[in-house]
Amino acid sequence: MALRRFKRLLIIMVILTLIVPTISCKKEKENKVKQTLGEKICEEAQKVTDFARDNDFVYGHASINPGYNWGELDVDKALNSGERLTSCDRLIDWVLYRTGFTDQPYNNGLVVFQQPAWLESLNFEKITDISALQPGDIVFMKHDPTRPGMPGHVFICASENLGGNVYLRYDHGSNERIKCVKGTEVKKGQQPFKEGIGEFYYAYRPNDSTLDVDYADKDSNGGFAINNEIDISFDIPYGSAKIDGKIEEKEYKLSYKMDKSNCIPWSGISGLYGAEIYMSWDESGLYYAAEIEDKSPSYKPENVGWVGVDCLQLGVNPGNIINNSKQGIFFTLGATSDGKVIASRHNYNEEMITDKIQGVATDHTKGKNSYIIEVLIPWEEIIFKTNKDGTVDTTAFKPKKGAKINVLPCVIDCKEDGSTVNCAYKFKNTDFYVANFVPAKLSK
Ligand SMILES: [Ca+2]
After folding, report:
1. 410: CA distance to ligand 1 center in Å?
2. C-alpha of residue 376 to centroid of ligand 1, in Å
3. How far is the CA of 374 from the centre of ligand 1 (A)?
4. The Cα angle at residue 115 between residues 130 and 126, in degrees rounded to 5
5. What separation in Å is there between the alpha carbon of 229 and the centre of ligand 1?
6. Could you report the per-residue pLDDT of 66-76, keeping only the tens digit for each?
7. What is the Å distance from ligand 1's center to 245 Cα?
8. d(CA 93, CA 70)
9. How many CA atoms lie within 13 A of 133 on its CB side?
10. Could you tell me the pLDDT band of residue 208, with boundaries at 50, 70 and 90?
11. Angle at CA 306, nearest 5°, toward 230 and 300?
């Protein structure tokens, strides 16, 4: 009997051991999800304003969106720790980036007069009644005299109405505000602080439908983890391809998908475009191809340069010879309407190399969902000795199995008339400097 009772007890204990942690984990998760988006915005605004004050940020126009540059709130990890600039609109970018709205331009960020349309595209609700503001609302003030109809200042509301339309706010609109000189209302030397709203324009409020975007991609960290890092490396397989604008399995054994899940725009705003990229190599050179999602690709007549045309790019560091502090050798590959690839090389020995590569573009006309660019870049265009000042000398690189050749693939989407770059996609933690290229090597 005793043995049977013991067995029963043992079974109950085992069941309890299995069940109890599951219950407590679930409870914790539910608690985190209960936080509203407005509360989350305020929580991030608190962290960001404390960080900017403690790390001596000053007022100015950041050339790199602080969301990317300081997303981790870590001075040592920031890409450009020399520039500690923030401003009213960059605070919004920064806080919303950390909240999960990471589809933002890498350079500069969204400026104040671009933000209302952006927030509308994210399903934020427009609020026009100043007395109804809530914590987490993005509040715009009138108005920029140089841009009629556009807001001139923006901050984050941090309280309910305290009476007489007085509110607390998070605001990076001046050195005084960044240093929290005014921050005596709640806690000395800290945001949020009380300041009159002046000429209220309107506000944008995150709501439930806002959750359709990145915010909804919840993970174990409550859904707001900042993870810009991707673990990616390329083994470029040995093999020859026929440059005909058709991508075939026998030509390219491996491909890499670039899309919203693993890429960010370094310029412009877009989450809609993606590309499948392909590489291989043989003794004649590097084969590079991509199928790029774009319903209205732009193209240019022959030999007018690359700027303002949809294109495919590849940065290369042959043999990883180029110093980490420098940019790689870049190839930009646009197309003409009749399917010829226009090619230019830049950073070193800059020139149009259209006649030195082989290239074909297909479906580069309106009406298709995607277009293809396929090229062979001969090794002679990659291995060369440049200026006497030693800017780059890659002649030590020998293309062979195991040779390192880090790369930066990039896809640029321009407006249909080629007037503006909408978006340029690159893998998330990659950048122009070869230190931030994708590790790659030639394989057999
Ligand atoms: Ca082919």
Report:
1. 20
2. 10
3. 7
4. 35
5. 32
6. 988 888 888 87
7. 5
8. 11
9. 28
10. low
11. 120
Q: Where are the beta strands (DSSP E) in 118-215?
A: 125-127, 138-141, 153-157, 168-170, 193-194, 200-205
282 CA to centre of ligand 1 in angstroms = 14
Per-residue confidence at 305, pLDDT binned at 50, 70, 90?
low
**pTM here?**
0.55
d(CA 267, CA 110): 10
pLDDT digits (tens, 9 = 90+) for 346-391: 888 888 999 999 999 987 655 678 889 999 999 999 999 987 766 8
Residue showing tokens 């901050």: 155
Comparing 37-216 with 234-442, is the CATH topology the same? no
Task: Please state, in angstroms and rounded to a whole number, the distance separating the CA atoms of residues 56 and 203.
Answer: 29
Q: Report the chain's mean pLDDT, rounded to a whole number.
A: 81
Tell me which architecture the domain covering 234-442 has in CATH: Sandwich (2.60)
What does the domain layout of the chain look like in residue ranges? 37-216, 234-442
Residue 1 alpha carbon to ligand 1 centre in Å: 77
Dist. CA 34 → ligand 1 center (Å): 52
Residue 300 Cα, ligand 1 centroid: separation in angstroms? Answer: 23
Does position 236 have pLDDT exceeding 80, yes or no?
yes
What is residue 180's predicted lDDT score, i.e. its pLDDT?
A: 86
CA of 52 to the centre of ligand 1 (A): 51
Q: For residue 231, what pLDDT band results from cuts at 50, 70 and 90? A: confident
* Candidate CATH numbers 3.40.630.30, 3.90.1720.10, 3.40.720.10, 3.40.50.20; the one for domain 37-216: 3.90.1720.10
In this predicted structure, the answer to whether residue 201 has a pLDDT above a threshold of 80 is yes
Please check whether residue 131 is in contact with residue 161, taking contact to mean a CB–CB distance below 8 angstroms: yes
CA distance 17 to 366: 62
